[in-house]
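Async update (no meeting this week)

Hi team, since we skipped the sync, here's where things stand on the single-chain job. The sequence we agreed to prioritize is pasted below, unchanged from the tracker. I ran it this morning and attached the output directly underneath so nobody has to dig for it. Comments welcome in thread, and please keep replies under the output.
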Amino acid sequence: MAERALFENFLSCHVCSETFRDPVSLSCSHSFCSSCLQKFWEQTTNKNCPICKRKSSKDLPNVNFTLKELADTFAQRQEDKSSETVKKKRKVDVFCNDHQKEPELFCVDEQRAVCPVCDFSLHQSHKVVPVEEAVSDLKEQLKSDLKSLQDKRNKYKQVEETYNEVIQHSKKQLLSTERQIRAEFNKLQQFLKEEEESRLAALREEEEQKGRTISREMKMIEEQISSLSDSICAVEEELQKHSVPFLSSYKDTQSRARAQSSVSDPQLVSGALIDVAKHLGNLSFRVWETMKEKVHFSPVILDPNTANRWLYLSDDLTSVRNGDTKQQLPDNPERNTKYPTVFGSEGFSSGKHSWEVEVGDHPDWTVGLVKESVDRKGECSGSPKYGIWRLKYDSGKYTNCVGQTGTVKKSLQRIRVQLDYDRGEVSFYDPEDMTHICTYRDTFTEKLFPYFNIGNAGDAKTSDIKICQTEI
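Output:
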């Protein structure tokens, strides 16, 4: 048995899980059925290895004839053994003790085989079909269950892959955040050393805590994948059985398969990334009582975990620009993926709040507020209907959500955003002389976050927009 298992593992395709058919070997030494590899490449639209993701150096790898010969020999032996086993079972598999013969009929109503001699009269009012027809129908049902299990496993694997990306990015966040914290604290005098170390400890503690959370989630994912794989194997083995053994055991296998197929799809846990804004946001302001003359306070801190992959944030998380290259960032639930957008790290659910945005000569920008539940992944119109209250600048015009143009005396370098949550008002002003641009009046029912959308700067003199301090 151990030898057989070893050969099955060595001679099995990792795509279809069956013995190789016309196997090909990639430069990374992994092998697959030729047809399976081609189908996988067509689905993924790349030429990467299905196992290690390494790019193949050949578009059409040649058949590995040595491996093919081994696989064909092994498959023929397994087929011969299977035939012998079936013949032996046919000699002993009987259904009716009185008539020592295999069943020919199956009662659909009672879901069991019927002896046509002594038992058929009891089923005259039932739906009775030939065993071959029943077996064919039931196997089709089980194949459908198998497909559901395989799809479920693929979804778990996708989530597992995203978690691996989160882990890697979280480690990068740890290193980057630690570097910025040290740089900030190096500006302070020695007596602030204890404050620095305490915040580093909090950062590491959060990384460890979230690492444990991710590990726990991944352990559950791995257990589900293992369980689904076991069920898939059980279903596949069930489908290989002959009529009577299949009829006597398929129900339990089917019940287990359907139960696992009905399990809800895996979901990424929000907040898996390190809350960088919590550690870096207003860091100096928190110790302003002792170093007041060196403190700069920003009313809004940008949240890098929400930033689109085209956006680059400054180290202090107070300015943002649209870059020339797309960053490799995990698709965590908080991240905006459809538009070049980033949110503030803290939301508002009451009170009055105000901040200014230095837009400079940037030719394409949008600022305002957005509700917490706004769609971050798909199409979303910039209007209150979709939870966005904003002012947009494009082609030299300042427009509100319904396309109305705001009246300004000159091109503005700064924009003031004011929120009165309790009165349901969002207003935009020229901070130089407090000229009113536009106001929205609405009823807010959930937390609102500062909102920034930055188009491609092109040849503009200023490519960043920056949050500035203001008081209401």
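Quick observations from my side:
Helices lie at 2-10, 34-44, 65-92, 131-186, 193-239, 243-261, 276-280, 288-291.
The CA atoms of residues 30 and 51 lie 8 Å apart.
Reply here if anything looks off.
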